[in-house]
Amino acid sequence: MRTQKGEMKTILKKGAWSLEEDRMLIAYINRYGIWNWSHMPKYAGLLRSGKSCRLRWMNYLKPDLKKGSISEEEEQSILHFHSILGNRWSAIARKLPGRSDNEIKNYWHTNLKKRVASNPVIKGSKQKDKNKSPCFKSHNVEETKEDLNIANDISNNFHFSWTSEDDSSTSSGSPTLNEFTAGIGSPGTVEDLRCFWRELYPLEDLDIRKSDQEMFHDHIFQYSYDDTIAPWSFYNDEYEIAPSSV
DNA sequence: AATACGATCAACCGCAATGCT
DNA sequence: GAGCATTGCGGTTGATCGTAT
């Protein structure tokens, strides 16, 4: 189905993320970095909005996120910074490394809000048992840990290189967190992306996903056929991805 | 055992800010 | 400066789970 502008119109998936979707997003970001949330899902083979992908990554998949319960120190920090900043959750989150704004917001609403309302001067804190949390028991936490390992294995087997204005040397290996969260990235060339998908869906699975490959005929993709040197440099002039050696 | 209810948290939605053309 | 795309934020919702009855 196409819109009047000739763009592909896809039905976007909503609701809980599956393991497979997590795996695809992690693997894609490990390989190409974060270059454009709106366009990324399509190239990663995800039927999700960019917003949804960004949220999933920021709140759950980002490797430097802490997975455990909020500590007493962190709780005191939340109380302290909330008294200064109010409901500016993202600002509070920046003060607590490894915690997302969503996590802090949820923690506030479920643990602290009532307590602060009933007792404005809170000194101590109740340590909640996160093992009782439904989400801790769901597939997401434990299985995603395993999934992150799988994704890391995948990314470790990829050749990843780029150059920048600041650093004319070429870096190889997997990008660090700072590198790929700093916006370094590229959707890759058509052939490069094919290799990426083959890594995710070896042989027999590739046929099943033929419909997904309709995107190779997407108008944006057509650019890449005519520009084989730095096909995606128009997205980010500072970086260009080297042809994959996979 | 079945049901109701509350707690928790991942995900969605709408809007504002920002950047680009 | 207008219009559009993208990103980031905060409020809210809904699914899931544990517990009480």
From TrEMBL:
<dbReference type="Pfam" id="PF00249">
    <property type="entry name" value="Myb_DNA-binding"/>
</dbReference>
<dbReference type="GO" id="GO:0005634">
    <property type="term" value="C:nucleus"/>
</dbReference>
<keyword id="KW-0804">Transcription</keyword>
<protein>
    <submittedName>
        <fullName>Putative homeodomain-like protein</fullName>
    </submittedName>
</protein>
<feature type="domain" description="Myb-like">
    <location>
        <begin position="62"/>
        <end position="112"/>
    </location>
</feature>
<dbReference type="InterPro" id="IPR051953">
    <property type="entry name" value="Plant_SW-associated_TFs"/>
</dbReference>
<keyword id="KW-0371">Homeobox</keyword>
<dbReference type="GO" id="GO:0003677">
    <property type="term" value="F:DNA binding"/>
</dbReference>
<feature type="domain" description="HTH myb-type">
    <location>
        <begin position="62"/>
        <end position="116"/>
    </location>
</feature>
<dbReference type="InterPro" id="IPR017930">
    <property type="entry name" value="Myb_dom"/>
</dbReference>
<feature type="domain" description="HTH myb-type">
    <location>
        <begin position="9"/>
        <end position="61"/>
    </location>
</feature>
<feature type="domain" description="Myb-like">
    <location>
        <begin position="9"/>
        <end position="61"/>
    </location>
</feature>
<dbReference type="InterPro" id="IPR001005">
    <property type="entry name" value="SANT/Myb"/>
</dbReference>
<keyword id="KW-0539">Nucleus</keyword>
<dbReference type="InterPro" id="IPR009057">
    <property type="entry name" value="Homeodomain-like_sf"/>
</dbReference>
<keyword id="KW-0677">Repeat</keyword>
<keyword id="KW-0805">Transcription regulation</keyword>
<keyword id="KW-0238">DNA-binding</keyword>
